[in-house]
Each structure stands twice: as C-alpha cells, then as structure tokens.
Amino acid sequence: MQLDKSAIEAHNEYLIKDHERRFNYIAAEVQDVEALLQKLIDFQVAIPSWALGTGGTRFGRFPGGGEPRNLEEKIEDIGLLHALNNSSGAISLHIPWDIPENATHIKALAAQHGLQFDAMNSNTFQDQPGQAFSYKYGSMQHVNKAVRQQAIDHNIEVIKYGLDLGSTSLTVWLSDGSCFPGQLNFRNAFQNTLESLQQVYSALPDDWKMFVEYKAFEPNFYSTTVGDWGQSLLYASKLGSKAYTLVDLGHHLPNANIEQIVALLLMEGKLGGFHFNDSKYGDDDLTVGSIKPYQLFLIFNELVEGMDARGMKHATDLGWMIDASHNVKDPLEDLLQSVEAIMITYAQALLVDRKKLAEAQLNNDVVTAQEILQQAFRTDVRALVAAARLRSGGALNPLAFYRQHDIRAGLINRRGSKSMATGL
Ligand code: PSV
Ligand code: MN
User: Fold this and answer.
1) What CA–CA distance (Å, rounded) separates 215 from 228?
2) How many angstroms separate the CA atoms of 247 and 282, rounded?
3) Where does the secretion signal sit in this chain (predicted)?
4) Which residues, in sequence order, are bridge partners of residue 91?
5) Where are the beta strands (DSSP E) in 43-111?
6) Which of 38, 42, 70, 142 could form a disulfide bond with 147, CB atoms 3.0-4.6 angstroms apart?
7) pLDDT attached to residue 423
8) Is the pTM of this model over 0.70?
9) Residue 57: what pLDDT?
10) Where are the domains of the chain?
C-alpha cells in the first residue's frame, strides 16, 4: 500500500496555520534552528521486522487484524510509517523469522519505499523445525561443541543474507545462561561463548560491525552469559575493533544508570547500537518514552554529548532501532508514537546548553546544572519535529493521518482479520 502524496499534502494544508504559529514561537527560542532541523531530518530509526504484528505473553495473544503475512507486507508497513514520518527509513531483519528468499526482489521493494537494511539479527534462542541440536541449554555457551558449531553456522548464514541486502551489521543476542545455581561453570560458559563469537567475527566482512547485545535476565533467571554491559564490553574488546556493545533499554536490572553506561561505552569507542523501548518492571517492551521520559532524555543527553566529543555523526555512526512488542495497541500506531518520542527527545538533547553545563560542572554548581538539563527537557519541541517532517515530505501529524484514513481497516480488508505476523 503506497500512500497517496496528495492526501498527505491535503492533511498538511489543513494543519499548516496552527503548525506555523507553534513553530515560529519555538524557532525564535532556538539558536541555530536550521542546523537543528537538518539533524532531525537526517536522523533515522530502524523498525524491526518482528514488531509489526501483535505481541503477546505466555498468557495469551490478542491480534488486531491486518497483520503482515510475509516480508513483503512487513516492508510495505514500514514504508507506510516512513511515508508518514520520514524518520523510519530502515528495517532490521530477524533470521529465520524473515528470510529474504529472493534478495534482489526484497532489496528493490525496500528501495521503492526508501528503506535500507539495518542490522541483521540471528536467532539461537529458539529451536527451529528440522534443526539437528536443541538450544535448550544454550547455544554458543553449550557444553557440546556440535551445538556451538550449529549456532556459529547460523550466524554466518545470517551475515550472508545481510550481504545480499546491503546490510553492514550483525546483532547477536544470546539467551544463554542458566536457571539454577550449579547448572553452569561460569568461566567455561564465557570461554565457549567467546570462542564461538570469535568464529563468527572472523567471517564478518571488513566493513561490517558486530553488536553484542546484553540482557540481565529472561529466559534464564539465575545467570545470563552476556548479562550486562561489562560482560558485553569484555567480549567486544576481546573480539576486536569491529565488535561493539549494544544497549537495549529494557535489559537492565531495576534502577540501573543507563545514561552513565552509555557515556562510558562511548568514551571507550565501544557503543555500537541501541534498542529503544520503555519499561516499568523488566523487559516490558512498552512504547518508547511512555513510562520514563526523563530517563530517556538523560540518555540522549549523554549520547549527543559523547558522540560530539568523539566527532561522530549522530545519524549514522550508531545503529538506532526500536525493539518493542505491542500487546494491546495497533503496532503501527505504537511505532509512530515510539519514533515521535525518540525524535522529541533527540531534539531536546540538542537544546542543552553544553557550554553553560560544563561551566556549572566545573563550579560544582549542582543547581544550575539541573536547571540547564530541565530547561531543555521541559521545552515543547513538537513543532520542531513536525517542521523537520514537513520539510522532508511527511505528515504534520502522522497518527491523526493514520486514523483519519482508517489505514488499519484497509489492511484488514486486504489481509484479513486472522493474519499472523512472524516474530515474537
Ligand atoms: C531480546 O529480548 C531482544 O531484545 C533481542 O534484541 C532480540 O533480538 C529481540 O528482543 C527479539 O526477541
Ligand atoms: Mn533487543
């Protein structure tokens, strides 16, 4: 489903007066508004191929209908999001949930929607039909070499799929770990995992990056073999310069200071990618910015500061992706909200007066430092984000457009109310 450009234009025309009033107000407050708008226009957040269907829990799943039935329809859905917000210009594939059977066709279809292929994701946390060995007791950590080899081979296969599509990174998330004390020898599990990752790393093309994603818990609840940023950094450092740590916001123990983790990883040149979501209890996979928006702002503040300190390009030097699940919302509406929350928070972080903040820090002026951060966080930047969208051909209010045009009803019409997307 390609959106009619003239429908977006009509929508924008209807809203333009109100928008301009809001924009002129905030633009007068911002120092170099043109530079800021360009940064917002350039910033793209990848959408995971597994987030386009309804998620669920072990207690049930309540699909809303019209879910994409194959990779082509998933690309179509992301194309739709991108046409509306111009900030979702990439797709991240999980193998084997979304195998690109015909890479040339899939690549051409994505290009038609202005989409690129972000990080490829391997899956050694589920057993697949016909698979020789089970991952019940882990994959890369496994005590049996043959199981480890199977996991290594799978990752190398994922790299090959990615090469055909023009991707340049591999994200490895392992569910490996243990459920009970005594189940694992921690050092052996680490060494096995490291050796397996080394095999995959040696198959990595020169211009690729490998992201090692950590998670403190689930599905293993006693120990996780890549359990925190320290362990991930250890693997990434031992692997080499193409290996990086990936931070998923939902993968920490309660109250972890994620902004500090981000700052230090950036300082070491070892932060590679990001999975956005929000949570109250654990890996809840809720809409970005819906529970702890100030924490998200503090994280973005460190991202901008740390990237600028290293002369990194905000838009391209890290992998930005949403990793969420939608149990009660329409996934496309949730993704529009998540991207909007990311853009708003990025814009707020760009507004922080860095010179004044550095001065306040040097003077131990705690109150001023807090005022500077909160001044940026409390600024309503929505008109700036909308202006960036307008300039790149998107809709002033993507969510309103989606509802007014009853896009979900159209999808249900064409795909049926019982269609099921692969993924979580
Ligand atoms: C694991 O919880 C994770 O965050 C990893 O990124 C997976 O690839 C993704 O979710 C989907 O299971
Ligand atoms: Mn993740």
Assistant:
1) 6
2) 14
3) none
4) 47, 117
5) 46-48, 56-57, 60-61, 90-92
6) 142
7) 76
8) yes
9) 86
10) 5-415
How far from the centroid of its chain's Cα atoms is residue 359's Cα? 33
C-alpha closest to that of 173 among 99, 88, 283, 247: 247
Stretch (H or E) spanning 9:
helix 5-27
**Could you tell me the sign of the dihedral formed by the alpha carbons of 96, 101, 104, 109, in that order?**
negative
Q: Which atom of ligand 1 is nearest to the CA of 123?
A: 8
What is the position in ligand 1's atom list of the atom closest to the CA of 50? 11
Q: Is the separation of the CB atoms in 331 and 53 below 8 Å?
A: yes
Distance of CA 248 from the midpoint of ligand 1 (Å): 8
Decide whether any atom of ligand 1 lies within 6 Å of the 215 Cβ.
yes
Pairwise CA distance, residues 413 & 247, whole Å:
38
- Given 3.90.1150.10, 1.10.287.70, 2.60.120.260, 3.20.20.150, which CATH number is that of 5-415? 3.20.20.150
Sheet with 319-322: list strands edge to edge.
116-117, 90-92, 46-48, 319-322, 271-276, 243-248, 209-213, 169-173, 120-121
| 355-414 pLDDT tens trace | 999 999 999 999 999 999 999 999 999 999 999 999 999 999 999 999 999 999 999 999
User: Ligand 1 in contact with 98 (CB < 6 A)?
Assistant: no
Side chain identity, residue 113:
H
